[in-house]
Amino acid sequence: MSFAAFPLWAVLAMAGAAAVAIVAVYLLRRTPRPQVVSNVEFWMRAMQSAKPKLLASWRIPLIAMLISLLAALAMIALIGDPRFGSGVRGTTVVVLDAGRTMDAVGVDGERRLDRALLELRRWVERTTITGEVAVVRAGMRPSVLLPITDDAADLQRALTGLALDDGPSDLPAAIALADTILAEHGALEAGVGQILVVADEGVEVATRAPIVVLPVGTAAHTVAITSFSARRVPEAVGEYAVRCEVSAFTAGRARARVVIRDGDVTILDERVEIAPHTSEVLEAGGFSSARAELVAELHDIELASGEDGFEGDDRAYAVVDALEATRVLLVSDGDRYLEAALAAHPGLDVDVMAPAAITGTSTADLARYHALVLDGVTLPSGVAHGAQLIFAPPARGALRVGNSISRPRITATLATHPALDGLRLDATRVTRATALIAEPSDQVLLRSGGHALGIARQLPRGRLVAFGFGTEDTDLVRGEAFPLLVHSSLRWVADRAEPTPLARRVGGPLVADSGHAVRDPDGETITSGVVPEVARAGIWHVGDRAVAFSSVDHASPLAAGATGGRFAARSTWPPLALMIAGALVALLLLEWALLHRGRLE
User: Fold this and answer.
1) Which uninterrupted H or E stretch holds 319?
2) CA 168 → CA 126, 203, 332, distances in Å?
3) 492 phi and psi, to 5 degrees?
4) What is the pTM of this model?
5) How far apart are CA 308 and CA 305, in angstroms?
């Protein structure tokens, strides 16, 4: 035991002085002798006899004196600020791991963070006896949790509201920050600086200050969601499908119930059984929603090898963006088949323009459209657009055409191209067509012998699909294949095919549009600008737009920091000052009880 406020000799001297003062006070008590009085003279003699006399007290209440003596000594001990251990010389910067795995519970039933905080408090209690201490929080981005101080009470205030990040900690960066703090404080030059790392993983970083690593955490098993995504179904407007992968980082078989919710509506509830170190994938579709905010959770986890030691990997998030109409301009004299095919798709917003009106347009006028459908016309010279679907292109236009072909027979179809999306058009009859002159980089979609009747071209700033025949020259328009052909071609030229919208990784930034506020997963507005690093998984909102941040990419086996690593000052007792204060209160209560029972007279 050591005293932080005064040296041991000063504490002993104050204790001796207090003891002498207490004993002297009790020896100098007024102790009146019994007197038989019947007049004023006897009263005067009694008053003279009651004056205090040194060492002349007939009765001393020994119990009261002992209690007072103990209380005085306890107060002196409190003033001396007693601590466990003998103290640590110099300046210590503690690096506290605040990564997601510190929330894991080991086979001993102890949470890693709880053990780390216990060790941190013990170390700070020792260090501030004769030295100084600072604490660096090692989250996804390191930060100073407690500046350099010699007051152990500052730590408790710094730990208020401490939360773990939903991603891995950046220990090397945190250790580098601790090394910089020691260097700027001058502790390295004096040779009295050191770094203590309290974490559940090993680390090897070159530093100027010596490092002491205190590993925490025992072995643990976990079942985790390792992948979760949702996407629109191109063939079914408004519908989306989900995919969820669950992995078992266990020594035995695992069972769990997978629940996926869209807001408050449960869209999937299914049990899975997973072999050790393997994964199971759940896929489901047919869910209809204009937009979706999805949460996947694991419930009722059962492990043959023990308990699930980590809840942080039992939840994942995904969003499906709101449907946005594709703006299309149809330039035609009035083609009923094209108009019907475009009207059959509710995701299109179609405007119709006569061919004569196209000559007066400019590139800027057409920029508001995602795609153009040109029926027997071409864009004027100097006008460009990056997404064009052309039927029966004219001879004089930007697209080079060849000779007219009567009753061509389609001999080859490139069904693997996204513009056709699996359509087989070999049996399609065409009464009249114009051969298209393909460039070397073009992909021929339809071929009649050596002639190209349909091509797909990648433009410098866009895409183009052209067919060498009109809707009046083929029986293709009489079947369901034609609306699919128009839809697939538009989706490819407009580059509007929605990829799988994977959730963002925790740790990335979130940028708010001008005038839009950012709300965290709890719905609290936190900023109207930029969040440089999102350290919490969940569904965030920027205005009306939902953004999912998930930590499934960080799901992995739980490595054990140590099975019994503890430093020498380990103790499960509370601080000495707290114990002495408790004893002092007990003494005061004892004195009060004895006084009221008449035992202190």
Assistant:
1) strand 315-320
2) 29, 13, 58
3) -75, -45
4) 0.61
5) 9
Q: Where are the alpha helices (DSSP H) in 347-453?
A: 355-358, 363-366
Q: Are 199 and 100 in contact (CB under 8 A)?
A: no
List, in order, residues 6 or more apart from 601 with CB less than 8 Å away.
61
- Cα gap 403→434, rounded to integer Å: 6
Give pLDDT tens digits for 29-59: 555 555 555 566 665 666 665 555 544 445 6
Going by C-alpha positions, the residue among 251, 257, 243, 227 that lies closest to residue 309 is 251
Which residues in the chain land under pLDDT 50?
Answer: 4-5, 54-57, 563-571
pLDDT digits (tens, 9 = 90+) for 564-574: 444 434 445 56
Token match 């007219």: residue?
404
- Say if residues 286 and 263 touch (Cβ distance below 8 Å): no
**Three-state SS at 356:** helix
Spatial contact of 249 and 308, defined as CB atoms under 8 Å apart: no
Residue among 156, 359, 178, 480 nearest 374 (CA):
359
Bridge partner list, 522: none
* Residue 562 · residue 216 · CB < 8 Å: yes
Q: Is 415 helix (H, G, I), strand (E, B) or coil?
A: coil
Radius of gyration of the chain (CA): 41
- Sequence letter at residue 284: A
- Token duo for residue 144: 């100073």
- Per DSSP, what are the bridge partners of residue 93? 134, 195
- For residue 62, give Cα distances in angstroms to 16, 183, 289, 585, 601: 18, 58, 84, 20, 9
DSSP secondary structure string for all residues of 256-275: EEEEEEETTEEEEEEEEEE-
Q: Could you tell me the two tokens for 120?
A: 């941190």
Q: Which distant-in-sequence residues (6+ apart) come within 8 Å of 84 by Cβ?
A: 1, 122, 125, 126, 569, 571, 573, 575, 576
